[in-house]
Amino acid sequence: MATPRQGRPGGTRPGGGKTRDKGTRGGRPEPQPAGTAGQGNGQRSNGQQRGSQATRPVRQGQAAVPATPATRAVPLWFQLTTWVLALAGLGVSIYLTIAHYGSSAILVCSEKGLINCAAVTTSPESMVFGIFPVAVLGLAFYVLMAAITSPWAWRANWPVIRWVRLGSVAVGMVFVLYLVYTELITLNAICLWCTSVHVITFLLFGLIVFSAAAGYGLPETTRR
Q: How far is the CA of 25 from the CAs of 22, 33, 165, 196, in angstroms?
């Protein structure tokens, strides 16, 4: 009885030798070509980097916000001084306007000699171009000055207010010089109430010019 053939064990071949597995040399893995090792890990890390770069916010195109230069603040005493002077000038202007349209007898002032308020307030020179009363012009001037010399106007630091304040007080000072000349040379009489308005205007002129020279409300870089 013939015995059945036994199959050759795996990995053997005729002649007693062992078969080599594909991709191995003597049971060792074949070396892979350079650049292929770690290719999968490299692709994975590159994908992670791209994902992280996509989630990052782009900051290169963002413009830097320039710093706002500091401005020289106007002292509180200066704000209150100019405002009180303007309110005082407004009060006297109201008084003179009432006397102009009413009666000069309400003016507490002498009516004889060099000090003569009635002679000044009722003279032809009390009307500018024969149309506008000087008292009304003074009233309008001090209404404006009371507004632009208030603490709120000083703190606003708006260039328009600054230039209007400086220009109006300069025009007012020129007009005061004209009125003083008229009283002393043309009329040869002085009105005490008018003189008080002139003095207030002169003080405001000096303070406002000083504020412009000192750079109140201006940026530090501009003053330099």
A: 8, 15, 100, 118
State pTM to two decimals.
0.67
Q: Model confidence at 50, in pLDDT bands (50, 70, 90)? A: low
Please name the residue that has the structure tokens 């020129």: 174
* Architecture of the domain delimited by 76-216: Up-down Bundle (1.20)
Token duo for residue 29? 């893995």
Tokens of 81: 């001084």
Sequence ranges of the domains in the chain = 76-216
Q: Give which of 187, 184, 150, 149 is closest to 169, Cα–Cα.
A: 149
CB 121: neighbour CB atoms within 10 A?
22
Higher per-residue confidence, 212 vs 37 = 212
> Taking the CB of residue 78, how many other CB atoms lie within 10 A of it?
19
Structure tokens at 199: 């003095």
